[in-house]
Design goal:
Number of helices: 24
Radius of gyration: 29 Å
Bound molecules: nicotinamide-adenine-dinucleotide, zinc ion
Distance between the termini: 68 Å
Strand content: 5-15%
Strand order of the largest sheet: 6-7-14-11-10-8-9
Length: about 650
């Protein structure tokens, strides 16, 4: 279906080219001008108020009833009908409108398409064509407002003022989008209103028709009823509008660059973009204290500003990252943020686990204070679990808590550490011994960042994915056995699926026991393999000799073997776990680490771990794959025996 559509589009465009480019351009220029008139009412009205007739402000009076008139209650029909031909007859495309709807991605089903942009961008002309080609109704928000109010938008501005106008516009757009899906052209100022943006985000997909100044000027200058542009230098006036509004339009879901091509060609661009559009996947983490989304998708860094702007208390952030990630991914994130006018500064720490300490933490806090952070300044952690834990702890404690966003760039961080709000640093006495719970406002997992991740790091992250299956989702572990190798090999679809499933699992566990307070099971289950892993990491040191995920991989094997030793888990399950971990190239047994380790030293590290309760070692054990449970009744001797059997010295 989709291919059929694309081919038809292609034929249509070729037909048009053959039918005479010059004639088409002349007609287009006329159409652009004519149809851009509709787009301009509001812009002019706004500027009439602000720049031409300030005196009118004093005459404004409230008129709450005007925009809620009876006419407004149903979707009103446009006074002008859409283009009858729009070049569609040539290919019979119009009749095929319904087929095209069927070809739209599922993410669009049931959603309205909302066009935003400046005067002259062609929202109405493109909107009409788009609606015709999709077989959807078209609505023009300004026309609906005028119909309801019985006067023109400029008259509305003059009589009631902008505040009343925006209030009515907000209600009109909400009403229009509450009904069946439509194509909606909005007035140029509508998307500046935070509530209207929120309505559009919820109900529709927004498309910004982005034009350069020169294009806009060509389209709008010289028309007689342009008091706004005639009142000063039109280029300067339009530039001011661009500076003011583009950062808000940049929050749109899709951005289409428009130049001097015909409206039909622009419409084709919009259609193609809609066909290729994939909404990032969103998972909701629902906690008693707060709710937030984990957004997973390819290319989210570029969209960071658009995704974050609705959540930030202040359009100001400090990005904390490490030196390697800064080189690879910071510029893209900063560009993404600046697109929606979010100001940013950066703090860069050395890469690796050795940065997760109190000294680096103190330097980050100093950096934040030097940057003049305020209560509303958001801290963004861009990097792996180290940066996430470190920056999160700095955010939790600086000024008694700053808003925080996780932008994880390692597989481990995307599937595990960025979700759930545990933050902290290591001390020479052990892992994560100083820290705080501090939930992020959002997690942006951009799978594109994984393309630069060294294979060893990718594998290490995989351990936490397998862990999720082993704890409570046997079907997911079986999925891992089938697809794990290819996923680590770089298959993007499998990576996205693994991230989604692992995050969903973690979100469910954390949602059930946010602060790990349940006496049994609950969030502590996520520590499967970690009592061993933390002891191994503390023993080897945090200098990169053993990655956290590698330590977890060994720990998973040990936890299952311990469970078998205690008569709790079939040996076949333990061997299945070890076999899979080894098959993907991770260390699954202590012997694979090629180090001399002492059982007594490892136990001493375990006794310093947070997971001690009443002096007893606490373990996560398993009755089989996907059946983990917590236990404080493991005798130390059983652990020592296991470690000795696995090749540790006394
Ligand atoms: P990491 O943050 O050190 O990242 C690993 C290495 O990869 C670093 O050198 C980093 O610079 C580099 N890197 C990161 N992203 C990259 C990219 N896209 N391309 C190229 N290089 C990149 O380590 P990690 O494995 O992500 O995280 C491990 C840490 O996470 C441990 O400290 C662990 O305790 C912690 N953790 C925390 C939680 C939690 O709930 N808070 C859960 C699991 C793990
Ligand atoms: Zn871990």
């Amino acid at each position: 279906m989709r291919l059929e559509f694309v081919v038809r589009q292609h034929l249509l465009n070729r037909l048009r080219i053959r039918s005479g480019r010059e004639r088409a351009q002349r007609q287009n220029a006329y159409r652009n001008r004519h149809e851009a008139d509709r787009d301009d009412y509001q812009e002019e009205a706004v500027h009439n108020r602000h720049w031409e007739s300030e005196a009118v402000v004093g005459r404004c009076r409230a008129a709450p009833s005007v925009l809620a008139s009876a006419v407004m209650r149903g979707n009103t029909v446009l006074r002008e009908s859409g283009p009858k031909d729009a070049g569609l007859k040539e290919t019979g495309l119009k009749e095929a409108g319904l087929k095209e709807i069927a070809a739209l991605p599922e993410t669009l089903a049931g959603r309205s398409i909302v066009l935003v942009g400046l005067m002259g961008a062609g929202k109405t002309s493109i909107g009409r064509r788009l609606a015709a080609r999709l077989g959807m109704p078209f609505r023009d928000a300004d026309a609906e407002i005028e119909l309801a109010a019985g006067c023109t938008v400029p008259e509305l501005f003059d009589r009631y003022g902008e505040h009343e106008f925006r209030d009515g516009e907000r209600r009109v757009i909400r009403r229009l989008l509450a009904g069946d899906p439509i194509v909606l052209a909005t007035g140029g100022g509508a998307f500046m209103d935070p509530q209207t943006r929120a309505t559009i985000r919820e109900e529709g997909i927004s498309i910004w028709l982005r034009c350069k100044l020169a294009t806009l000027l060509r389209r709008v200058v010289g028309r007689e009823h342009r008091p706004l542009l005639n009142a000063g230098d039109p280029a300067q006036i339009l530039q001011r509008l661009i500076d003011l509004r583009h950062p808000f339009y940049a929050e749109a879901d899709l951005i289409i660059d428009c130049a001097d091509e015909s409206p039909d060609v622009t419409t084709s661009h919009v259609l193609n973009a809609l066909l290729g559009w994939q909404a990032p996947r969103r998972l909701s983490v629902a906690l008693t204290s707060t709710n937030y989304d984990v957004v997973i998708g390819d290319g989210l860094l570029e969209r960071a500003g658009a995704l974050l702007a609705p959540l930030l208390p202040q359009k100001r952030v400090v990005v904390v990252t490490d030196a390697s990630v800064a080189r690879l991914h910071l510029p893209l994130l900063l560009d993404g943020l600046s697109a929606t006018a979010i100001q940013s500064s950066q703090i860069v720490v050395p890469a690796g686990e050795s940065s997760k300490n109190l000294e680096t933490y103190a330097r980050v806090v100093d950096g934040l204070l030097d940057a003049g952070v305020e209560r509303g300044t958001t801290i963004i952690a861009l990097g792996g679990g180290v940066v996430g834990d470190l920056a999160g702890f700095a955010a939790a404690t600086t000024l008694r808590g700053l808003p925080f966003v996780q932008v994880p760039t390692t597989l481990l961080a995307q599937v595990d550490s960025s979700v759930g709000g545990k933050t902290g640093v290591n001390t020479p006495r052990g892992k994560n011994l100083v820290g705080a719970f501090h939930q992020p406002r959002m997690v942006l997992a951009d799978t594109a960042t994984l393309r630069t991740l060294p294979i060893r790091e990718l594998r290490a992250g995989y351990a936490e994915i397998a862990k999720a299956g082993l704890i409570g989702d046997a079907a997911f572990f079986a999925w891992c056995e089938r697809h794990g190798g290819r996923m680590i090999g770089g298959d993007r679809d499998l990576q996205a699926e693994a991230i989604r499933r692992a995050c969903a699992f973690k979100a469910a566990v954390v949602g059930d026991d946010e602060r790990e307070e349940r006496p049994n099971d609950g969030r502590a289950l996520l520590n499967l393999g970690h009592t061993f892993a933390h002891a191994l990491e503390a023993d080897v040191g945090y200098g990169g000799g053993l990655l956290h995920g590698e330590a977890v991989a060994v720990g998973l094997g040990l936890a299952f073997r311990l469970s078998t030793r205690l008569g709790l888990c079939p040996q076949a399950d333990a061997e299945r776990v070890v076999a899979h971990i080894a098959a993907v190239g991770l260390p699954a047994e202590i012997g694979m680490l090629n180090r001399r380790l002492s059982a007594a030293t490892l136990i001493a590290h375990m006794r310093r771990d947070k997971k001690m309760r009443d002096g007893q070692l606490k373990f996560v054990l398993a009755r089989g794959v996907g059946q983990a449970f917590t236990s404080s009744e493991v005798a130390q001797d059983a652990v020592t025996d296991l470690l000795r059997t696995e090749g540790c010295g006394p």
